[in-house]
Design goal:
binds flavin mononucleotide, 27 helices, alpha/beta, 620 residues, binds iron/sulfur cluster
Length: 620
């Protein structure tokens, strides 16, 4: 829709919007009822229509939404998928996850760069195409993956890149590109309680209407279900606290919210993608059940921007549920049981998976984590009591609503009831989705997915831990190895330090920048790993690496910073020799080559004697 070349804006001079552009902008605002809490959604549409967020549009949006311009600008600058400079008509991003690397993404990206004639981060001079890297797009078992104008591309090959470049050069709309470029498979390899048990839409709600909200909550508590997003908090307790929390004056109608966390940004995790693709009814049923228990009338599913391709499908499932009286007023004829769900889409920020940052984003703000306490169960969305649960948690809750708590609690271990859905990727013959009872050993999982010659695996994504081949008898579960579901396998041909380097780059890129230990610390860790991997590390650097890691872990404001050093600490503990082997004989080499930087001055002064050089070695 946006045809002007905005060269001045690209060069830093803001251009006023034309009348037509203003009316496009106002139509976007109207579609969102000029609701400032929808700022992220509004900016998504502005970005799609104008290929960037024009400076003039920020002024107009601030006026139309009744908020400060600074807020609009801060949000526009926070999310990776927004840009204040025009991007190409085709905006191509290549997934930079370690599992994509292992499938050849770096070579594919280099080839794309060569064919397009631009470097990562650049837009071609004709404005036709931009290309860059992006954090894991959640297609780890069918990479190398990427996005074009927000839509998922899978299984990229050189041949596909050739065809994509032709389509870009010919100006073929993305909607007319071959469908197979966008095919996303489920790859379910092992189904258990959650993936195998059939749930007829509405059946759990019908049961709940019969036995009542108290008894439904009692079943959830009896099941022992714990959150599947990583932290493992008791779901029954969370729902109970929220239900008991005061939402305002006693004479005002209660206002509570249900939020499904479908941000799934942890590299290596893609099981929520599959649940949303093939079990969406079950997830929505769990959310509705929660709404009934806590007395909420509105739910939101916060979908990560990388899963934009799922948006229409989810809206269709919601429409179908409304038609079948499973959403809306008096659900299934139960007077006063009113509940509806809306899908809100993120814009490329891993931190928005943290529940309080997610709520900020839902409110139209930057995804900066809140101080906790208070927790969302008492002060969540719009400062009202809110349950935030993971997609898998809601899918499990729906089945518990139908089958009862004992059915679920019968499976698993004492402290970890039920099953866990794993996203398995990396070095194995059969990557994909595997559901296991808690208590299953790592060895059994590796056997099932055809992993051989395994060096180790990263459990729980970069924020989790690295398990070596001496630990394969350990088991899944909160007692031993808790996980949000990411299971990345590495065989003996892999370089552990390169893996850790990829993870530290991820955290440095995704730190929201709010607190200093994480903002500065994750960058320092990234630089240290770069230095080590380039063979410039010295013994002092290892001391420094450990010191910064502990500092970042112990002093950061939220879970991102608190876990960012995990890959370093867990591999340093298990493989100190690998780090030692990379060190140079020198005790210390500075990250900045001061002597080299003085070369120009030496040449100008015509000197190259010993006194004109700086000695920079420090012995620690
Ligand atoms: C940096 C960070 C990212 C997170 N990302 C996710 C996520 O993508 N999905 C998720 O369910 N939980 C994520 N969490 C955990 C959430 O904060 C929260 O604990 C979870 O949504 C609660 O749901 P549950 O009780 O069902 O697990 C993340 C936490 C942190 C610190
Ligand atoms: S720890 Fe990192 S991500 Fe969390 S608030 Fe601080 S800067 Fe932001």
């Amino acid at each position: 829709m946006y045809n002007r070349e905005h060269l001045l804006e690209a060069a830093g001079t803001p251009m006023p919007l034309t009348e037509t552009e203003q009316s496009v902008l106002m139509r976007i605002v109207d579609r969102h009822a000029a609701d400032a809490t929808q700022l992220v959604q509004i900016l998504r549409e502005v970005q799609a229509s104008f290929r960037h967020i024009p400076a003039d549009a920020m002024d107009s949006l601030a006026a139309a939404l009744g908020i400060e311009r600074a807020q609009v600008q801060a949000v526009a600058e926070f999310y990776t998928f927004f840009s204040t400079k025009p991007r190409g008509r085709y905006d191509i991003l290549i997934s930079d996850s370690i599992t994509d690397h292992m499938l050849g993404s770096r070579e594919i990206a280099a080839y794309l760069s060569e064919r397009l004639g631009i470097q990562p981060g650049e837009t071609r001079s004709d404005g036709q195409v931009s290309f860059d890297y992006t954090s894991c797009t959640g297609m780890c078992e069918q990479g190398p993956a990427g996005l074009v104008n927000g839509l998922t591309l899978t299984q990229l090959t050189r041949e596909r890149i050739d065809r994509i470049v032709d389509l870009v050069n010919a100006g073929t709309p993305v909607t007319q590109w071959p469908r197979e470029f966008f095919a996303v498979k489920d790859n379910i390899r092992r189904a258990d309680l959650i993936l195998k048990t059939e749930l007829k839409p509405g059946s759990a709600l019908k049961w709940s209407n019969t036995r009542g909200a108290d008894s439904t909550l009692a079943e959830i508590e009896k099941s022992g279900l714990r959150g599947r997003g990583g932290a493992g908090f008791s779901t029954g307790m969370k729902w109970k606290f929220c239900r008991q929390a005061k939402s305002g004056p006693a004479d005002a109608p209660a206002e509570r919210y249900v939020v499904c966390n479908a941000d799934e940004g942890e590299p290596g995790t893609f099981k929520d993608r599959v649940l949303l693709q093939s079990y969406a009814d079950q997830v929505f049923e769990g959310m509705t059940l929660c709404g009934r228990v806590i007395g909420a009338r509105q739910g939101y599913l916060y979908l990560r921007g990388e899963y934009l391709y799922l948006g229409d499908h989810l809206d269709r499932v919601l429409q179908e549920r409304r038609r079948n009286h499973l959403l809306g007023s008096n659900i299934l004829g139960e007077p006063g049981f009113d509940f509806d769900i809306e899908v809100r889409i993120g814009a490329g920020a891993y931190i928005c998976g943290e529940e309080s940052a997610l709520i900020e984003s839902l409110e139209g703000k930057r995804g900066v984590p809140r101080n906790r306490p208070p927790y969302p169960v008492t002060h969540g969305y719009r400062n009202k009591p809110t349950v935030v649960n993971n997609v898998e948690t809601f899918a499990a809750a729906a089945l518990i609503g139908l089958k009862g708590g004992a059915w679920f609690a019968d499976v698993g271990t004492e402290k970890s009831k039920g099953t866990k859905i794993l996203s398995i990727s990396g070095d194995c013959a059969k990557p994909g989705i595997y559901e296991y009872p808690f208590g299953t050993s790592i060895r059994k999982i590796l056997d099932d997915c055809g992993a051989t010659n395994t060096l180790g695996l990263q459990i729980g994504g970069p924020s989790g831990i690295f398990i070596s081949d001496r630990e394969f008898d350990r088991v899944l579960g909160f007692e031993d190895l808790p996980t949000g579901g990411s299971f990345m396998i590495f065989d003996r041909t892999r370089d552990i330090l390169e893996i850790v380097r990829n993870f530290t780059h991820f955290f440095a890129h995704e730190s929201c920048g709010f607190c200093t230990p994480c903002r500065v610390g994750t960058s320092l860790l990234r630089n240290q790993l770069d230095k080590l991997c380039a063979g410039h590390g010295a013994k002092g650097d290892l001391v420094e690496l450990t010191h910064i890691s502990k500092l970042v872990k112990n002093t950061s404001h939220c879970g991102l910073g608190q876990t960012a050093a995990n890959p370093i600490l867990s591999t340093l503990e298990r493989y100190p020799e690998l780090y030692e082997q990379r060190l140079r004989a020198k005790a210390f080499e500075p990250g900045f080559d001061l002597d080299g930087a003085l070369e120009v001055a030496r040449r100008m002064a015509g000197r190259d004697d010993a006194h004109a050089h700086l000695e920079q070695e420090a012995v620690l």
